[in-house]
Specification:
Blueprint (H helix, E strand, L loop, with lengths): L2 E3 L6 E3 L2 E3 L16 H13 L4 E3 L8 H10 L8 E6 L15 H15 L4 E6 L8 H13 L3 E7 L5 H13 L5 E5 L13 H7 L3 E2 L25 H4 L1 H7 L2 H17 L3 H11 L7 E2 L4 H8 L8 H8 L9
Parallel strand pairs: 3-4, 3-10, 4-5, 5-6, 6-7, 7-8, 8-9
Antiparallel strand pairs: 1-2
Length: about 325
């Protein structure tokens, strides 16, 4: 797999990142979406395809994701991989300081993250969300300390609601005090979810911030498993989540999926591969984060790096959605 620069940094990462949020995630039935053995098989497959960019978070699987990655890393050369984790969400019940971006929580969590991963440094640490109760002066100072002491190489910020002003405010403070800025952003972005195009993506370009989008397949909608006015397949998010149905299973979104299918037929690819190829070819995207359940799905997704869209096909996909999906 080819590599690209991680934003404005000198670090090279794979054109597709492996997301691990399902590792150790417990279902309502008490089973894991992806158990330890399957997690290690996915990591093996990703590495075998030349992948080096692994994305996790302290709260994925209540720490199991990081721990299983750490076990896997212990049998490999740590220096061959770029490991990213995140911090924000609650990890200590009934503890008012057990979440957010306050200094107490950040300092506690960086030690736990490194311990679970079995490494003495992170390549990239994201703030999983912004914290309205903690001023950026505090968390940027604390995060800068992690970079200065060698615990972290680079800083990034993940988001659900793309508010560009928060990133700009934090980075302008960092610039004023010669602190490490956010050099990578992780918003939701795909052919359906286009909210970041309003201003967030322009902010990334203006401030030279790498963009590593999550949910590149719109929660599975862009894999093509759903068909307009046909029965929703059992066991899918569409059959289990009203929120997913309301957001994605709309006539407008099916129109976008129709264009994806047309181009997939033209180039003998799957809808998932076409959707990922659009992101990979996007000049403002660094590396989409894929979260496959099986090694077969992962192989299909990674194969998108070998797909070349014509400019006309890229433009047809870009223009297939005129307005953002409803929240």
């Amino acid at each position: 797999m080819e590599t690209v620069s991680l934003g404005q940094t000198g670090t090279a990462v794979s054109a597709v990142s492996l997301g691990t949020w399902r590792f150790g995630h417990e279902t309502d039935a008490g089973t894991f979406e992806i158990d330890r053995e399957s997690a290690h098989a996915l990591l093996d497959a990703y590495a075998d395809h030349g992948g080096n960019f692994i994305d996790t978070a302290d709260m994925y699987g209540k720490g199991k994701s990081e721990r299983w990655i750490g076990e896997w890393l212990s049998e490999r050369d740590r220096e061959e991989f770029v490991i990213a984790s995140k911090v924000y969400w609650s990890t200590r019940e009934d503890d008012p300081n057990g979440h957010g971006l306050g200094r107490k929580h950040l300092r506690r969590q960086i030690d736990r993250i490194l311990d679970r991963l079995g490494t003495d440094y992170l390549d990239l640490l994201y703030t999983h969300r912004f914290d309205d109760r903690t001023p950026p002066e505090e968390f940027m100072h604390t995060l800068n300390g992690f970079v200065r002491d060698g615990s972290v190489n680079y800083l990034g910020t993940s988001t659900f609601e793309p508010r560009a002003w928060e990133v700009v405010r934090a980075n302008e403070f960092a610039d004023k005090h010669n602190y490490e800025p956010f050099t990578v952003a992780q918003p939701r972005y795909n052919l359906i979810d286009r909210e970041i195009e309003a201003e967030y993506l322009a902010m990334c370009e203006s401030y030279d911030i790498g963009c590593c989008p999550w949910s590149p397949l719109a929660g599975g909608f862009l894999t093509g498993k759903y068909r307009h006015e046909e029965r929703i397949p059992d066991g899918t998010r569409g059959s289990e989540s009203d929120q997913f149905t309301d957001r994605y299973l709309t006539p407008e979104n099916y129109d976008t999926l129709r264009v994806v299918r047309e181009i997939a037929d033209e180039i003998d690819a799957t809808p998932a591969q076409v959707s990922l190829a659009w992101l990979i070819a996007h000049p403002q995207v660094t590396a989409p984060i894929v979260g496959a359940r099986t090694t077969e799905q992962l192989a299909e997704n990674i194969s998108a790096v070998d797909i070349s869209l014509t400019q006309s096909q890229f433009d047809r996909l870009s223009e297939a959605k005129a307005t953002p999906s409803p929240v």
